[in-house]
Design goal:
The chain is α+β, with helices and mostly antiparallel strands and 183 residues long. The chain folds into 2 domains: 1-33; 38-178, no CATH class. It is 54% helix and 13% strand. It contains 7 helices and 4 strands; from the N terminus they run ααβαααβααββ. It has helices at residues 2-35, 44-68, 87-93, 97-105, 114-118, 133-147, 149-152, and strands at residues 80-85, 127-129, 160-167, 173-178. Strands 2-1-3-4 form a 4-stranded antiparallel β-sheet, with helices on both faces. Helix 4 packs across helix 6. It starts with a helix and ends in a 5-residue tail after the last strand. The chain crosses the membrane at residues 6-29. Keywords: Membrane, Transmembrane, Transmembrane helix.
């Protein structure tokens, strides 16, 4: 009887270790592809906006890079926040993407970015540019406080996925998904 229990435990442990190994491989694969500039799973219009903002942001840093002899692999200081909306989730909450966008653009300090006034044509309810990472984190926190099911006290479907995109001076970018913002 004891040998059966040991065998069952060993089988369980091997399965758990195999599952952990698979998760580690998936993590490093996603990380590797993201570092090459993988676009988030968004529509073509949003991808175009990300490309345009990438050009604007990296052009701003070209002169700084030359003046200070900086490494092209360094990150620019203006991250993007990208939201891929789920229309069903928005409808269930009786809100629109404009409501969510208003939550972001009313984050204290948001309008201080000098690239926004120059590039109003690149504004949308899905792509937002920030002066720095702290300001982006503040906006994500506001999204969580206003739309997460634990905070609002209901069990709504998610209203979308949230991505953080950071451009390097050489024009490449890294995409990172922010999980559980709207769940």
């Amino acid at each position: 009887m004891l040998s059966v229990l040991v065998l069952c435990f060993a089988s369980f442990l091997m399965g758990a270790l195999f599952g952990l190994l698979v998760q580690i491989i998936i993590y490093f694969y996603k990380r590797k592809t993201a570092e090459k500039g993988q676009f988030p799973d968004v529509n073509e219009e949003t991808k175009m906006l990300i490309k345009e903002w990438g050009k604007v942001i990296t052009n701003k840093y070209k002169d700084i890079e030359k003046d200070y002899n900086l490494n092209e692999e360094m990150f620019c200081n203006e991250p993007l926040l990208v939201i891929d909306y789920d229309q069903f989730g928005l409808e269930r909450r009786k809100i629109t993407d404009s409501h969510v966008a208003k939550t972001i653009i009313t984050t204290p300090g948001y309008t201080d970015n000098d690239l926004i006034s120059v590039n109003l044509r690149l504004q949308s309810n899905s792509v937002f540019i920030f002066n720095n990472s702290k300001l982006l984190d503040d906006a994500v926190s506001r999204l969580f406080q206003n739309y997460h099911n634990l905070i609002v006290g209901f069990h709504y479907p998610s209203i979308g996925r949230v991505y953080d995109i950071r451009f390097r001076m050489n024009g490449t970018f890294v995409t990172c998904e922010r999980f559980n913002i709207f769940d």
